[in-house]
Amino acid sequence: MTSSFEPPALGRRLTINTVVRRHQIEATRTRSLWDDESELHSAQLVERFSRAVREAIPGARLTWALSWGALTDESARYRDIRRLLAEIVRETGDDVTFVPGGFFANLYGTRDEVAADISDAVGRVTDEMGVPPRSLVAGFLSADNIARAREQGIRTVQGNIWSQFDIDLQDGDGSLAYPYYPSRHHFLVPGRGEDRVDAVQLDGWTVDLVAARSAGMSSDYNSRLGLGPIETLHRLPRADALRELEATSAAHLNDRNVERNGLGWLTVNYEISEVARGLETDAGMLDAWAGWLRWLAAEWPDLEVPTIGEFGEQWRGLHADNEDLAYLLQQEGSGIQASRAGETVTWFMTADFRLGVAEAEGRAEVFDFTAYTAEAREPVELGDRRWSLLGELNQKRTRPQDEPVPFGRFLATHQDVDASLTERYGSAPELARLRDLA
């Protein structure tokens, strides 16, 4: 049978965001962690980064996120950066916005404190740039703060980092990887009815779906392997890095993915301080990254590069709610680190659940099943890093119950999921193949 959930067509999109900050982690307005990065920032480097993107993909538009320190510092360094960004906005249509809490705002600030930071920062950005921001770059952001940002006119939020677990300061595994409207009770859950926040929730970094089954990172693997420059170009041999960038890009931009989802979407963050660090290591690092952008444009000439805010508006124009979501994402292992050659990962993602199935050596096993129908609540205590939504099975395999289950056995004990897969994905060849292996 054919699916009753035919996706509206949006096409191929790439969103690029970057961060300008003073300290590596600006936890609150007055508390900073790790390095003072002021010396890594300059108007000259901002202009160089902007030019590198536009030369690689003419007409591309970027989203620039300023930390509280970068937004309020009155030194010549940051005044020059803000003045240049205002010029760039006028010339290119870029979006300048705020990054609250160094990606981990709710780890260190109460909901009210974070809401006040966002409100004050939106006002400052509007005054500095002459136009209000159209989005937020937030790393992780609570559902309450997304809803309150929506009241400030923010309609798109990069508010989750898909598959993040045991890396940096906060966990957030459990969401969909493509856009959705979040619940008012948990930012990782697609909202339904009155529980839906009318703000598009976006992932922060496109990662390799095979490598993402790992937890954390070591010298041998990185669960955030994918498009991130600091996970690829900064750490891998150049040929391996480019092979991984191209493999992950192709998994989303290939014709079949665009056909089945109506959308092939890549998103990447390259913080200005990391651009500086990359150039200190290798003077050709930014050129190599721009070379990947040129490759994308050559392979897929219809690829568009809007700001995060523009992309959110494009998506919401086709989706009034989450009811028609039936994402199907698939990637084969690249052979780089934990992206194991010979393994294929397929994800089914709806407003009711996400289901991950791995295929290797002629076997199909369910490694993640996260239902969105049960009540979920976010942490409320400051300092609690565990914001993940761990369902019946979770891809990170950090609990005894997370041992993968043969696909056929899973369907036999989850007949409602089996029926939903049939209804939403119909005769999709990816589903048919997994059924044949069951």
UniProtKB/TrEMBL annotation:
Top-level taxon: Bacteria
InterPro entries assigned: DUF3863 (IPR024334)
Organism name: Microbacterium jejuense
Top-level taxonomy: Bacteria, Bacillati, Actinomycetota, Actinomycetes, Micrococcales
Domain DUF3863: 14-349
Pfam families per record: DUF3863
Protein name listed in UniProt: DUF3863 domain-containing protein
